[in-house]
Amino acid sequence: MKNRFKLLSASAPSEVHTGGASTIHLTDDKIERAEIDKSTRIPVLIYYSSAIFWLLFGTLMAIIASIKLHTPSFLGDYSFLTFGLVRSAHLNAVAYGWGATAGIGTGIWLFSRLCRAKLVNPILPIIAAVFWNIGIAVGIYGILSGDSRSIEWLEAPAYSTPLIFLSFALISIWGVLMLFKRKCAHLYVSIWYLFAGFFWFPWLYGTAQVMLIMEPVQGTVQAAVNWWYAHNALGLFFTPIGLASAYYFIPKIIGRPVHSYYLSIIGFWTLALFYSWNGMHHLIGGPIPVWMVTASIVASWMMIIPVISTAINHHMTMKGYFELLKSSPALRFVVFGAMMYTASSLQGITMAFRDLNKITHFTQYTVGHAHLGLYMFYTMMMFGSMYYIVPRLVNWEWPSSTMIKVHFWCTALGSGLMVGSLTVGGLIQGLALYDAKIPFMAIVSLMQPFLIFRSISGIMIAIGHIVFGVLFIMMILKVGSKQSGPTLLNEVENGGEKL
Amino acid sequence: MSFITIIATSLKQVEWPTSINDVNPFFIVIIGGMLFFGASALWAFYWAAKKGHFENFQRQSEEIFAKDEPIGTVTDQFPVKKKK
After folding, report:
1. Which of A238, A374, A484, B31 is buried most deeply by CB count within 10 Å?
2. Which of the pair, A78 or A7, is modelled with greater confidence?
């Protein structure tokens, strides 16, 4: 570590302060933070453990689905492993099982820390976690046994969704209660993002359930409701949680306030205003009123405002500090995620353009875009958050920096290869499909190498995930010898009680 | 035909419910949710403006630092093997 950046050593807190009065304040702040972290320990670890379980399960489903696309006979004798079922099981396991669960865990920790208050009513998030996991497990079992409802993002059968809704309503109520107990002077921008995600999602999910399952609307309105929900789940739930993490962890890790807080607020309110209109751009060319699609395209282009303001903000905050990417695992993942947020949002905006959309619609290009957003942005952001949060919860340092590096490079290169091959392949596929002279079977075999690349990248990502799973288990079990730490975790004592 | 005329014509064609029993209860839930969550966003914006969240940005951006983790402190690093 060069001297340019001061790393506060936890083992020698006396070095950073002199004089009696400030010593007390320093210890007070540290104790307060340790107590808040401790209060979130059990719920957050429950969320993180189940998230990692679903991540590994979802990765397995993904690899099976991916191999089936270029080798259809693979596991062809099992009816519950047909492509349509495995693909939906993958989506539900990684989006709701991994993504949402990891996001709620991170959200709980961030929320408590930023409210500067101990977690209130810990029973609510714990009950929610139990219901959530049962709901996802029953839902995925239902999908694999043939009860899938064939509505994208809402495949889980009707007998599992009330549990998921109930669990999220509990989280929402917990968020409101927590906000009332806050002790912070101001609501930092991350709280806005997190609270928005927590508060809106049950409404989105509930509305979609009512309008598609309980009292289905008729005809193509179903498609409109479907994409209103699915795009809002991405834009008003996953994106705010990912951005909340970026807005906290980048400044916090490098020890520099965010470049422009003003831009971050602009980003939040414009995201809230424009993102909710975006859903209909999934139905370009579809049989719904054209004005609905056009309104969505305009709103998609307006997303340039929050995306660019966030991109400028994160880049300018990091400017001059990029060296720290070498030394901080959490920062590495978070900054990678933040860069990919810009990339995926800009790509998404261009995809809302009719002329590009007519080529890329129904091709692997869209699949590539989905992984750029939910994997390279959101998932990497969650990994980064976990690298920062877990040591502070279990009071143990990550056991191996080599394993962290393996995790980073396998997932970063793997996902890069996947998105790259699907984007190029998807464009070729789209252009070929647009040419009526090319026989369909020729296009199918044209896609084969790209799909094989995707399977290879999937295996790379799976290796990264398994390494991360092992690291997480080692952390929970506190394997190895105690390290005095770089992550400032030396034991804090308050009146003889270890925190 | 102007936009307003189109809307007025289509509104005339709607068969409005004559009693509350004719209204689908789910419809009330959906419209109610829409109004409630829409209003909550507007109210949050108003509240933020009133409580000074749109001024003094520098101070708000420093909210995440503490006296023992002040600005200029790097708080994350790869684990290092303890030298014996």
Report:
1. A238
2. A78
**Coil, strand, or helix at residue A497?**
strand
- List Cβ neighbours of A126 (8 Å cut-off, separation of 6 or more): A42, A43, A46
Neighbouring residues of A455: CB distance < 8 A, sequence distance ≥ 6: A63, A66, A67, A70
CB-CB under 8 Å, A330 with B33: no
Buried b (16+ CB within 10 A) or exposed e, A99-124: bbbbbbbbbbbbbbbbbbbbbbebeb
Distance from CA of B82 to the nearest CA of A (A): 6
| Spatial distance between the Cα atoms of A390 and A396, rounded to a whole number of angstroms | 8
Q: Is-contact A139 A157, C-beta < 8 A?
A: yes
Whole-prediction pTM value?
0.91
> Confidence class of residue A493 from pLDDT cuts 50, 70 and 90?
low
| The pLDDT of residue B2 | 81
The pLDDT score that the predictor gives to residue B13 is: 86
Q: Which two tokens stand for residue A314?
A: 């994160």
Query: What is the pLDDT of chain A when averaged over all its residues?
Result: 90
Amino acid at B14: V
Q: Does A10 score more than 60 pLDDT?
A: no
ipTM: 0.85
Q: How many CB atoms lie within 10 A of CB A285?
A: 12
Query: Do A6 and B79 lie within an 8 Å CB cutoff?
Result: no
In B, residues 50-69, which contact A (CB 8 Å cutoff)?
A: 53-54, 57-69
Interface test with A, best of B77, B82, B84 (most A CBs within 10 A): B77
Burial of A292 (0-12, 13-18, 19+ CB in 10 A): middle
- In angstroms, rounded to a whole number, what is the distance separating the alpha carbons of residues A389 and A109? 8
